């Protein structure tokens, strides 16, 4: 049974990500953990009255968050019942990044699925280095869901952005294979370079390794030259009408070019396709 973490700030985009997750894994036995994080108060109380005031604020926030989590659970229960799915709510008193990281480790989470907007979303975290902090801290894949992803959900074609630098994937792309096979998807791999499309022997070997890893799926390769990585990925995604885009988070490589400080805001606002991100540490 898969363990899936659904961080929420109770926003519309968080709810969209939750519904997307339920639909994506509708035929899989899963436990979904709906998690809200409460950040600590910034200032330390300097007097008894201040401490009491802080305690009152904390209790109020705590009770309000518990009520919102219950409402979230009720909304799920109003959806068509799925006997494959079980749900638990979690209220974690910590900063968002630390809350996600500790929960993933504590519960053995397999996947984190979250929205791209809102306090618990990728869009806010792409401003600066928080996206890298989130991704780099997780050992499990992350799926980032943009607004309106559910209404246009079509996974007949899944993109795979690659710099062909990985020699051996092991079983780390099994989740991608599961999703693609469940939805009869074609994998469209795109390699973006400012050089010739002629691949070196090493890159050809890595291309073959990717094809072998993704068997028995159909994998089509596309090559884009003379454009930035960010622009190439966006144009490819839009022109192919991808249902999802897979990215490998590998230091000093393709992922960093997509999510560095200059590109992060642009990617988050223009790439309107769910991202499935695998951490480089497991590859």
Describe this structure in words.
The structure is a single chain. With 283 residues, the chain is an alpha/beta fold. The protein contains 10 helices and 10 strands. The protein has 2 domains: 2-145, Rossmann fold (3-Layer(aba) Sandwich); 157-282, HUPs (Rossmann fold), CATH 3.40.50.620. Helices cover 41% and strands 22% of the residues. A 10-stranded mixed sheet has the order 3-2-1-4-5-10-9-6-7-8, sandwiched between helices. It is elongated.
Q: Can you tell me the CATH superfamily of the largest domain?
A: HUPs
Largest sheet: 10 strands, mixed
Helix proportion of residues, in percent? Answer: 40-55%
Between the first and last Cα atoms, what is the distance in angstroms? 23 Å
Structural class: alpha/beta
Count of alpha and pi helical runs: 10
- Name of the CATH first level of the largest domain: Alpha Beta
Oligomer description: single chain
Q: What is the CA-atom radius of gyration, in angstroms? A: 20 Å
CATH architecture of the largest domain: 3-Layer(aba) Sandwich
CATH topology of the largest domain: Rossmann fold
Please indicate the count of domains. Answer: 2
Count the E strands. Answer: 10
The secondary-structure element order is EHEHEHEHHEEHEHEHEHHE
What spatial form do the alpha-carbon principal axes imply?
A: elongated
The order of strands across the largest sheet is 3-2-1-4-5-10-9-6-7-8
Strand content: 15-25%
């Amino acid at each position: 049974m898969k363990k899936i973490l659904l961080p929420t700030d109770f926003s519309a985009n968080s709810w969209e990500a939750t519904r997307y997750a339920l639909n994506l894994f509708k035929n899989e036995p899963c436990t979904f953990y709906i998690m809200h994080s409460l950040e600590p108060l910034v200032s330390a109380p300097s007097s008894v009255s201040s401490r009491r005031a802080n305690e009152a604020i904390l209790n109020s926030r705590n009770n309000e968050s518990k009520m919102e989590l219950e409402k979230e659970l009720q909304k799920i229960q109003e959806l068509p019942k799925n006997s494959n799915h079980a749900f638990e709510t979690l209220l974690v008193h910590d900063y968002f990044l630390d809350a996600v990281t500790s929960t993933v480790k504590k519960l053995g989470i397999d996947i984190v699925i979250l929205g791209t907007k809102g306090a618990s979303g990728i869009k806010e975290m792409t401003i600066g280095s928080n996206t890298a902090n989130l991704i780099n801290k997780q050992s499990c894949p992350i799926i980032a869901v943009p607004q309106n992803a559910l209404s246009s959900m079509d996974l007949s074609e899944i993109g795979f952005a690659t710099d062909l630098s990985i020699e051996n994937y092991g079983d780390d792309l099994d989740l991608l294979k599961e999703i693609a096979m469940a939805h009869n998807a074609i994998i469209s791999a795109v390699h973006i370079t400012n050089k010739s499309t002629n691949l070196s022997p090493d890159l050809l070997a890595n291309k073959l390794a990717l094809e072998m890893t993704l068997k028995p799926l159909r994998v089509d390769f596309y090559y884009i030259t003379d454009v930035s990585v960010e622009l190439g990925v966006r144009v490819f995604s839009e022109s192919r009408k991808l249902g999802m885009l897979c990215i490998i988070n590998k230091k000093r490589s393709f992922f960093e070019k997509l999510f560095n400080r200059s590109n992060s805001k642009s990617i988050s606002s223009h790439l309107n396709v769910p991202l499935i991100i695998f951490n480089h540490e497991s590859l």
